[in-house]
Amino acid sequence: MRVRIGLSYDGTSFSGWAKQPGLRTVQGVLESTVAQVLRLPCPIDVTCAGRTDAGVHARGQVVHADVPDSFVSSRGEILSTDVALSRSLGRALPDDIVVRTVSVPAPGFDARFSAIWRRYVYRLWDDPASIDPLTRSYIAVTTHKLDVDAMSEAAATLLGLHDFAAFCKPREGATTVRTLLDLTPVRMPSGCIEVTVRADAFCHSMVRSLTGGLVAVGQGRKDASWLAEMLTLRHRANDITVMPAHGLTLEEVAYPPDAEFAERAEAARNRRDCACCDHAPTHNALAESDTPAGQEDPL
Amino acid sequence: MRVRIGLSYDGTSFSGWAKQPGLRTVQGVLESTVAQVLRLPCPIDVTCAGRTDAGVHARGQVVHADVPDSFVSSRGEILSTDVALSRSLGRALPDDIVVRTVSVPAPGFDARFSAIWRRYVYRLWDDPASIDPLTRSYIAVTTHKLDVDAMSEAAATLLGLHDFAAFCKPREGATTVRTLLDLTPVRMPSGCIEVTVRADAFCHSMVRSLTGGLVAVGQGRKDASWLAEMLTLRHRANDITVMPAHGLTLEEVAYPPDAEFAERAEAARNRRDCACCDHAPTHNALAESDTPAGQEDPL
Fold it and tell me: What is the spatial distance between Cα A279 and Cα A14, in angstroms, rounded to a whole number?
């Protein structure tokens, strides 16, 4: 039986999502805790929608795991495994991971490949004299005031299907072509600037680099045309700052209607084609790589 | 020279404001850091407006300290001490204490006795299924939904000058008569319930007990008349929960115009009189205690 679990976590004390020997990771803690709750002899594999990097937080992470159908409680009660996990997983996890939902999804659901988009928010604070120590674990501070209007104007030039190589940490054989659906900086009433970034999928460090590019524009060090030029690069830019991990939070992952889970997962596993953008030769080369589309690199 | 310092801190890793041997406290860290920055041989006394208890946070704490008028920097530059503290104190403090302002106040200023009111906010979250791990260090979770309208109605009965003995941890010879200026629970767009509590001064555990009383009403376990009855008690109530420290934040301390600092401090040091409320005999007895009014017990 496949279960779908909705998760939030404070990334501060984790070495990211992906399990690594000897390090405390969200995947490592979750896999061993699911096994402990279900009294299984060894950790169970879980797959997530957005592989967050060390220090990155999540409010809307989604994962799936394949588990035995039923579970016998200590009182001899036979429970459906999703019910057993709903009752006990939250209590068994440390307090920096919170289980929001446990459910049995429609057939074909894959937390990673069925997703249609991921929404991240990068939080910035541009008044060092009034740093709030209570929010310092999830808001990054910039040394100069930011012009949010200039950032918004520049952000608009990056929307759509492009090769985001300039903003990505390269990975052998992986495409850097993505569809950027939303890139919106907004100053909130508190003074915090929230940069919403939404795309079909992201490559490694992409959200933090996009935000770094916008910060350069907001501080007046660069302009919108410099940022737009980045889309012509076929390699990582050396003048874009990758913003600190702790300002970034995965807020939401969207899925299609139940009947389309399998179809979407199949499509996302297929190679990405890029016939509709301006750089056909390069993109065709990328499209020939064996990287599945919908690939979500660590952020 | 007296300096006034505006401070914020995350109370999570402090054993409260007041210095105690062997414990990490805000006062202890601040006094030794001021001395270190000014290269003084021993810690310097600092006095705060609101003595926060272990785990309580502050965004608007105000303190004063008496320091030498001038300071010679490592480059031989002679600086006014407030300028030296403005430049260096923030950098020298750990990142859970933030200096917001350093200034030289008008004569007669006393961070504690010149204050005219303190404003605290207690933050509650009443949906355990959607706890946000990023805000768990400063929002307290309740197990049942809260009726904010019922809480508001009950809160209104407590406003004004009363003996808040029912809500206070007793202290030998100290009055528990206070003027409650504001007690307002509001559900924010995020779902968080912010209880704003403002008074001339508070006694020990008063804000957390007032919030505990409102939570009992909000959960339907008690009603407004039960809460109003508390004002007739001359001792601590045994059926009011003192809410956890981490939900509480000192947000603001207000002072009169500069010319009135000394006058206000003098008045606050005098014994509190209570001729205007309904319980003259008890309150007269309290007024005869030697506790200065304006006394701010740990919260």
Answer: 39
